């Protein structure tokens, strides 16, 4: 594996990965941010060029200073050749198995290679699979989408806002994957560099929100229990969709298989991607 540096190569790769959406979404979204100021100081690795089979996006080495910070130490992977993945993942120049980290992707066939290498290196793996939700790429507002957007008008006593780092504590308190000091720092960094969207209730407090992270995925979504089942997340989505369409950004997120939002998502013309959303949290036994 080697790093792609040239902007022209990154653009060619980006356009090529679009043909493999939704399976390529994690690396596709990461490369979008790498091409646009690269605020998380990430890099792109390929096994060959231009006829690549494996693409990995990861933080540059100087970013991965904290061996326990699996939020920063995150790798996004896409492969056309899962049979070659085990050899690649075993290489210490590709993944640092001596620290805690995460692997994220939209392909379940990454699982076997990760399982084998982690077992050989005495690394504990916590695997999570959820439902991947996407929009047609590239996103363009068709007549149906415009009608949906216009049908969800925010009540005058509620207001759409952009989040800022001062909201990180509240977001962290309610994030299933968070609730700790490292996740707080991670959320602060996301809000310093990427859009976060929220709804203010009539009392002037946040009642619903969602935050974009380093691979362009919308995550950390939450609605205060008092305001659930009233469509505020759906109404906030109108604001989000207009923003992403204007910026021509990738847009996707994941939800639990048991969440009750599937009808609302269908109303907003979102699609369930059959490949799913997958995350492997890897922790060396010495840190367990």
From TrEMBL:
Domain Glycine N-acyltransferase C-terminal: 197-284
Pfam families in alphabetical order: Gly_acyl_tr_C, Gly_acyl_tr_N
One GO CC annotation: mitochondrion
Coiled coil (UniProt feature): none
EC number assigned by the record: 2.3.1.-
Keyword line: Acyltransferase, Transferase
Superkingdom as given in the UniProt entry: Eukaryota
Any one Gene Ontology molecular-function term assigned to this protein's record: glycine N-acyltransferase activity
All copies of domain Glycine N-acyltransferase N-terminal, residue ranges: 1-195
Family, as annotated: Belongs to the glycine N-acyltransferase family.
UniProt protein name: Glycine N-acyltransferase-like protein
The species this protein was found in: Suricata suricatta (Meerkat)
């Amino acid at each position: 594996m080697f790093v792609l540096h040239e902007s022209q190569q990154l653009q060619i790769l980006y356009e090529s990965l679009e043909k493999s959406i939704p399976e390529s979404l994690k690396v596709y979204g990461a490369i979008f941010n790498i091409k646009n100021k690269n605020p998380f100081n990430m890099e792109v690795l390929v096994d060959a060029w231009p006829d690549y089979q494996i693409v990995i996006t990861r933080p540059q080495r100087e970013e991965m200073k904290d061996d326990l910070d699996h939020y920063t130490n995150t790798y996004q992977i896409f492969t056309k050749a899962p049979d070659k993945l085990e050899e690649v993942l075993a290489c210490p120049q590709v993944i640092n198995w001596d620290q805690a980290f995460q692997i994220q992707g939209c392909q379940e066939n990454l699982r076997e290679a990760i399982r084998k290498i982690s077992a050989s290196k005495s690394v504990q793996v916590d695997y999570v699979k959820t439902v991947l939700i996407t929009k047609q790429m590239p996103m363009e507002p068709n007549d149906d989408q415009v009608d949906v957007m216009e049908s969800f008008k925010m009540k005058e006593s509620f207001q759409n806002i952009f989040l800022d780092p001062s909201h990180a504590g509240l977001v962290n308190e309610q994030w299933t994957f968070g609730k700790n000091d490292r996740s707080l720092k991670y959320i602060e960094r996301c809000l310093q560099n990427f859009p976060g969207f929220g709804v203010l209730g009539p009392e002037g407090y946040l009642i619903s929100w969602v935050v974009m992270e380093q691979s362009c995925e919308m995550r950390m979504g939450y609605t205060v229990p008092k305001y659930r089942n009233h469509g505020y997340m759906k109404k906030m989505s109108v604001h989000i969709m207009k923003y992403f369409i204007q910026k021509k950004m990738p847009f996707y997120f994941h939800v639990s298989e048991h969440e009750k939002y599937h009808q609302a998502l269908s109303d907003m013309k979102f699609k369930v991607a059959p490949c799913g959303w997958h995350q492997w949290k890897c922790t060396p036994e010495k840190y367990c």
